[in-house]
Design goal:
4 copies of one chain form a homotetramer.
Chain A: E1 5-12, H1 16-31, E2 36-44, H2 48-58, E3 62-64, H3 67-70, E4 78-81, H4 88-97, E5 101-104, H5 112-121, E6 127-129, H6 137-147, E7 154-162, H7 179-182, H8 186-202, E8 205-213, E9 224-231, E10 236-242, E11 251-258, E12 261-266, E13 272-277, E14 287-291, H9 314-329, H10 337-356, E15 360-361, H11 362-368
Parallel strand pairs in A: 1-2, 1-4, 2-3, 4-5, 5-6, 7-10
Antiparallel strand pairs in A: 7-11, 8-9, 8-15, 9-10, 11-12, 12-13, 13-14
Helix pairs in contact in A: 1-9, 4-5, 5-10, 8-10, 10-11
């Protein structure tokens, strides 16, 4: 094994995502070789007892309370942001200015303007946005098929992200329902994932028509958002994200229909990709039910033999593995801050369309910003 | 068995739907008792050799070539229309004026105006529109659950009707691609079914935003239509109908999420209904995979014991069975011409919205007509 | 259309199967051209009021009470037997001796000896046994794949036939629980179907080891039967048939694994065949989920366009259609009485093995008979 | 967090299972609190370069080549055995005699006698056998339902463990095909898992009838094994394990039918349990499709929020978590060596039955040993 460069990570925030990131930082070295040696240097947050407990359980060396001091520390190489959304921008911009590698949870920001400020500030540092579902092996396989032209010209892109906990508010993180901290509801939390995958798999969105709805009386953020889209490649898209789909826990679903084939994916069945190949003999036309655990599948050889399934957390491990490889090869990692700005532009068009009742261009609002 | 009143049927048109209707007229008496005795009196169409062949195979007593003469015949009680869409209105209006019972394929007409003319002309005769999917036992079970309030307040209605033969035009009926005969493409052919079910299951649609697309160069009618909807009950809807969903043959899918439960249906799996009941114990929360073949299910006791599945054609048999019962009881049958006018109004709003790029009200265009 | 020869059918018995057969006799001519014109001449049974009601509903011309007279009638060409199992042999033998075409429900008989007597008596008349699942289009497609060698050498054959009504005896036909009338329980009723399909798809069974169980106290017939099998082709088989599989209504399931591919079928999802093709590219290895409704599928072009599903009753229609074609071409139809004798031999070996606790040969008991 | 007792682990063997165990030792402390602090002290094996590479990647402190020396080391508390099967007994017996905690891969041994020797030697030390599938949350939920009597009297137990790599021997670990090292093929590797789950879920097996088959010419071990079983509780069982199920990678499937309900599980869909509850209203009778990720499900609260799926490796983490808890509470852990002896007895009966062609008692061979 090669000699390795140490990378000290400081994580700001320590909730659900803090645990998922901590796990990824630990596990990436077990499954991937790298010239970087990640160290879990410190975690920073407001509640010191909780922070200490988490540091002990996950092996963080230190705890801290003041992120502004943390981003200035010389012994920190990487700032990982998993705070409420309204703090992403100030922390990321400070960290970037201090020359740190910056990792940030999605949605990147609560407005296009903010996200562009972040992207500008971070032009000279490596950035990563935790759009972790890009690294689901089944999604990566879908991307490969699209890139190879195996679906042919794309006609339809369809995505739904269905959860139900908005209807059971007791169970939820309080900040996710506050406009000032979350910026939005299902839009930033769920639709952002669907849009990021759509941009990766099907290219730019030109225009959207959207409907935004809050079902819970008095709630500050949206519970559901529906969107039609015109893609630059001529295909049409249908999107829906909601926290009011009773019975659905994490149904992040997408389906693409092209001239030569189709694919279908559901996050609740993370290890499967359904692939229709129009070139199959007619009598066996039917979606291939592919268990994407190898052989011949993206990423999977790093884990277990074929047939042994992966879980949610592996998407974070894989995100980190690819990021470390991009650092090593000095290549641009995706999704980075620039990629996330594109997502914000679509989210902005969604808001605009939902207010005007007309189609909104993602380019128009780009010109304004 | 009671003595039965003879009803002589004349069918105008003899394609795919002609066979489905012929089958229903034959079979309804085998599975249902009725005070009416349906007779397959005559079929009318342009191609006499084909017509004769069909009459022989399906036991029609006569063939005829002139529908205007047929609707005037004294020995005809029922006119069943399964011609191309542009002929629905003239035939139906003449038949209604002649006092006949009028059955008509969907979409009822090629415009709201035309459909309203038909409904007006037929005010005093029993009418039926072949929105046959209302009588899928699983759909009827869903309707029962909705009516009993078992889904609670509805939040989301989602429907997709996915076919692929638009991309293989050689296989298609030629008239279905002609504006003058079909009026529209996926809209009238597929979306009309989805809208009819939505109106039945979830009530009126107030407004829509829609996108209509023709993928095939030079084709006169739409290949795909996407629609967002605001329902009068406060729920939001997403609809998509396409003939360009490669790999899908007849995926007429719908899903409803309410406060207390959810249901999911796919026509390619016609005998199943997936039912989520939020009042189940948490540890067994999960959609019930219900094989809707009885016991305790709508319609199914008329056919085979539980576990023996029904097919596509049974939806027509059941439509006819309910219609005969409504005649016998002198009750209003649904879907009738008035119901179909409501579908046309939504379709009209779809066209309007797709042209203006803004939301269109189903009420506004109603005022115009 | 060609001029057609009239075939007068007399049906003995009038229960669930009587309805399924009546339907097939009516419908075969609607979906298939034939040089035979089936007439529903008479039904024969003990309960005259029920018989008359059924005759009216299904269009049988006459009713009769004495099967011995019926089989002698000159104006009857075909005897169709759907009585309790113990009457199959006497009726079939008399009918065959009278030169009639003989159709008989399964299981053919209640012993090997009886079935051989029937086959001997019927050597010179066309016979049919209603092993209707051979004509499920998905099963016919599986047969085609096997015959073409597309599964390669077969390693595994697995069949389960799971129902639950044995645990709810109130719902059941009384005669099915009587040893004297039914002969056996799940064995003759369900396992016979699985064995017939296995013999058709995978060839002869050499030996079996079996376990037979009655769960209901005091019941005369078996509720469940499990069987291991050695096939002549070197493959191994696992079979299970039960009326005590709570939650299963009609799960007639089979799965075959060969060197080059695999297929999987479930009667509750009658229109699907899952096909694994080892020659697919590794990255899309996965069962094709084939909706067996055409194009390119057995039988389906006779009914509706692709994507429009068929039901249970179509298997009877297709059985009749193939039978009429075999008459017309003077070819041997399968499954005939000889085929059904082979099923009885396996059932006999099952009983023998369950009594001795050792493997039983299907050839040994053949030598004895 | 409490002060923790250090437990030094030495792992003998370093293949696929070595990685799965290493991961479990690392991860258990991240997701579970414990009074034990596991240390990855040393790994022992024959190939020192491979061993060093693995030690570096997985953070083992030392490497060693001589297991006999390792089991004597004072600074080792736990011996974890993941060598080929023939080495399980000598290592485990030595380790137990040296007073170590002993963890061992399955199958525990290559004969009943050997396994009993191991269990005897280890009477006074804590033992664990890596029957990891006991800790699949869905399986644990099934166990809870069985224990609560929610399935009622059990009628049927059905298990298949289907893999295909036996037909692609190039891909396989060489030792697994050698009689001297593996002891058996599908029997010890796959059927042992199915039997362990059956004994846990459905209690003792009295008798079996089995068929063992090797398809590959010249192969020393079995490729497939089929087994019928009579359980002590009166239910009947069907088992099948094979490495020749083309198209199946890791389909460890089980299904239980009882008087009040049924459950169904497939390891390739690890996070699901299908639950039929006969007490549901008839009209919603159908298996609940339960995503076993909480709330209210075993184990899942330790990982991610509901809807975020777990993978194969979590079963090892959970096994370790429960084992540490049993140590802490001084309770007996299952599956231990005694439990694994019971599995060996069934495997022995399988071999006996396959040789004699008759049913074999698990008690009889117990008396012999």
């Amino acid at each position: 094994m090669k000699s390795r460069k140490r990378l000290n990570v400081a994580m700001i925030g320590y909730g659900f995502m803090g645990r998922a990131h901590s796990n990824a930082f630990h596990q990436v070295g077990h499954f991937f070789e790298s010239s970087y040696d990640l160290r879990l240097k410190l975690i920073c947050g407001r509640n010191q007892p909780q922070l200490k407990s988490m540091a002990t359980q996950w092996g963080w060396e230190e705890v801290a309370g003041d992120w502004e001091a943390v981003v200035e520390r010389k012994d920190v190489d990487v700032i990982d942001i998993c705070t409420p959304n309204n703090l992403h921008a100030p922390i990321a911009i400070s960290a970037a200015k201090a020359g740190k590698i910056v990792l940030c949870e999605k949605p990147l920001a609560i407005s296009v303007e903010e996200s562009e400020g972040m992207a500008n500030a971070a032009q000279n540092v490596p950035t990563l946005v935790w759009f972790n579902y890009r690294r689901v092996p089944a999604i990566a396989l879908a991307k490969k098929f699209v890139d190879e032209g195996r679906l042919g010209q794309i006609y339809h892109y369809r995505a739904t992200y269905l959860q139900s906990w908005g209807a059971e508010p007791a169970a939820a993180d309080a900040w996710r329902f506050k406009q000032s901290e979350a910026g939005s509801g299902a839009m930033g939390d769920l639709l952002s994932h669907s849009i990021d995958l759509a941009l990766m798999l099907n290219g730019p969105v030109d225009e959207v028509s959207a409907l935004v709805r809050t079902f819970a009386p008095g709630r500050e953020v949206d519970d559901a958002v529906l969107m039609l889209a015109r893609f630059a490649n001529g295909s049409v898209g249908s999107f829906e994200a909601t926290r009011y789909a009773i019975g659905c826990q994490n149904r992040n679903y997408l389906e693409i229909h092209g001239a030569k084939g189709a694919i279908r994916f559901d996050l609740e069945d993370l290890n499967r990709l359904h692939v229709f190949d129009a070139s199959d003999a007619k009598e066996v036309h039917g979606s291939h039910n592919v268990l994407v655990t190898g052989p011949g599948h993206p990423y999977t050889s790093h884990f277990w033999p074929p047939g042994h399934i992966l879980g949610y957390e592996h998407t974070f491990i894989l995100t980190m593995a690819d990021f470390l490889q991009s650092l090593e090869k000095d290549e641009t990692f995706h999704a980075n801050f620039q990629d996330a700005v594109k997502v914000q532009r679509v989210l902005h068009a969604v808001e605009e369309s939902s207010q005007t009742g007309s189609w909104a261009s993602t380019a128009m609002q780009f010109a304004n910003s």
